[in-house]
Amino acid sequence: MMALLKNKIGLATISAFALFFLSCHFQTAQAEDPNTIEPSSNFVVTDHANVLSDQTKQAILKQEQTFKKTKEQPQVAVLTINNTDGQSIRDFTNSLTMRSVWHAGKKGQDNGVIIVFAKNNGQNNVRVVTGTGVESVLPDGKIYQLLQANQQELKSSDPNAIDRGIRNLFLQVEKTLPTTQTSGKQSASTTSSVIALGLITILLLIIFLVWSKMRRLNGSKGSYYGTDNSNNINRFNQTSNRPQRGHHSGLDWFLGGFLLSNLFSGTRRHYYDDHYDGFGGESNFDGSDFGGGSDSGGGGNFGGGGSDF
């Protein structure tokens, strides 16, 4: 009886140690390394923890396309991971943003934001880190308030609640970033209007110059025929060896028409080329961004600002 009990205790002890080592191995395998982890092909959505719904991913990608049409072109990226392997969420994120591949935002303006969510065995740690260019509009205190407002969902054990909390946090963060809308269609319309005005001005100038010259020619002809015959004969003899002005007038008309033709045809060609290029650039969201595009961070620097829980 005692031997059987000892065997059971020994078996239980061995099983406990086996489960412990397996658990440690599983956690290590699931942990992400901030020095090697890479962003996804679209950069703004990297969901290693598989907690983001299609609705949340689409909202992030759609906002990325909206940001691209602004003058400032900020970025808000979301990264979810399973485990920080014992590191604090702050240390993990600081190491992450030291790498240029994770530099979000427009280069020179440093207006990127990265939201990092780590499961960490049910702790659900979240950190929002900001670039130096948006720390004034999104200071640490503001970020902490946003985290607290979504704490219940972010700390939940329900995957749907976690997804909803990350989506709400993202939407609240992106609304704080200052942007100036620059519509591509309006820019093209403004450019074409300026070109048209310039062409009209050149056309009017050419017409005026040709009209002035024709007027001088008509005046000189009237004075020529209004004199006496003797003077006409003398003037004819004096001018017979000079080129006739009528030939110059025809040449002027030819050159003027040739110039106008080149101006209109050249402008029309560039106008359609520009509009074609602009139209082609609108396919990113519908095609490559969500399914495997090649977007990346804009190169903004991070100055260590941020908050977490």
Automatic annotation (TrEMBL):
Keywords: Membrane, Signal, Transmembrane, Transmembrane helix. Pfam families: TPM_phosphatase. Gene3D superfamilies: 3.10.310.50. The keyword Membrane applies. InterPro entries: TPM_dom (IPR007621). Residues 1-31 form the signal peptide. Residues 45-162 form the TPM domain. The keyword Methyltransferase does not apply. It comes from the Bacteria. The chain crosses the membrane at residues 193-211. PANTHER family: UPF0603 PROTEIN YGCG (PTHR30373:SF2). This is TPM domain-containing protein.
